[in-house]
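ESCALATION

Customer reports they have been waiting on this structure for their group meeting. Please prioritize. Original submission:
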Amino acid sequence: MTTDADDILGQITEIVARELAVPTDSLAADTDLRAIEGADSVRLLRVVAKVEQTWDVELDDSDVFTASSVAELAGVVREALQVKAA
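Update from on-call: job pushed to the front of the queue and completed.
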């Protein structure tokens, strides 16, 4: 699995779009996850679960819940991958 920042952002964008049933091109790096139409706590937890499964990482709850945008979630994943690699 790739650890390139742009690739992670792209994959997370695809996961968010799929799990929240929105077009990928409607999402930008600074899109607020909670502001996406149809987003609720259950769907956002499914996004997190899919992200964890995709990269085989366990994300810290406090990091996940403070990440409000697609890019911030990608940053949390990058940090988790760095910890895993160490």
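Sent to customer with the following note: The chain has a mean pLDDT of 93.
Escalation resolved.
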